[in-house]
Amino acid sequence: MRIISGNMLPYVIQGIVYGFAAATQPGPFQAYLILQTLKQGWRKTLPMVLAPLLSDGPILALVLLVLATVPGWLVQILEIAGGMFVIYLALQAWRSWRSHDSIPDGAATMPSSGRTVFQAALVNLLNPSPYLFWSLVTGPILLTGWRQAPVNGISMLAAFYLTMVAACAAVILLFGMTRRLGFGTTRIMQLLSTLALATFGLYHIGAGIWAWCNRT
Q: Model-level pTM?
C-alpha cells in the first residue's frame, strides 16, 4: 500500500520546502529565537519552536476564510502575486547572505525578557510575515490541494509545520553551538533556502500565468 499518492506528493514537497524556508529566512521570530538562544542557551529556547503551532491557528483560519470566498481567477492572481512575493523574499535573503547578516535588522529591538512559548507565539502573531506568507503563497496552495482532495491540503499543512518546527529546532541548536561551529553552517542553510524560494517563486508565477491564460 502506497502511503503517499502521486497527487499528494507535490503538496508534501511544497510543504517541506516552504516550511524549511519559513524557518530559516531572517525575520522577527527567527531573531527572537536566535537572541534567546544566545542569551539563555538552546535547552531553554528549544520549546519555543512550538510557538507557530499556537499563533498560526487564528492567522490560517482568517486567511482561508477569505480565500474560500473569492472567485478562482482571483486565486490565480494571488498565486502570481505570491510568486513575486517569494522572489522578493529570495532577493532579501540573498542580500542578507552576501552581507554576512545572520541576525536580521531589528533584532536588537526584540523583547529580552520573554522566556515562554506563549511570549514567542505573541512575537510571531504580531509579525506581518505569516499573514503575507499564508495569504499570498501557502494559503492558495493549501486551498487548491483541499479542493482537489482534503488529504492533499492536510498533507501539505502537516509537512509544512513538521519541517518548520524541525528546522527552527536545528537553527536553535546551531546557534547554541556557534562558539564551536561558527556561522558557516547557518549560511549554508540560508543559501539553500534562498535558492528554494527563488525556484518556487518562479514556478508559481508561471503556474498562475498558465492557469490565467487557460481559464474557461
A: 0.66
Domain range list for the chain: 9-213
- 183's enclosing H/E stretch is none
Q: Contact 202/89 with Cβ under 8 angstroms?
A: no
CA distance 115 to 170: 19
SS3 91: helix
The pLDDT assigned to 105 comes to 41
Half-sphere exposure of 75 (CA within 13 A, CB side): 22
Residue type, 134: W
- Rounded CA-CA distance 156/207 in Å is 18
Take residue 115 and report the three cell numbers written for it. Answer: 522566556
pLDDT at 116 over 90: no
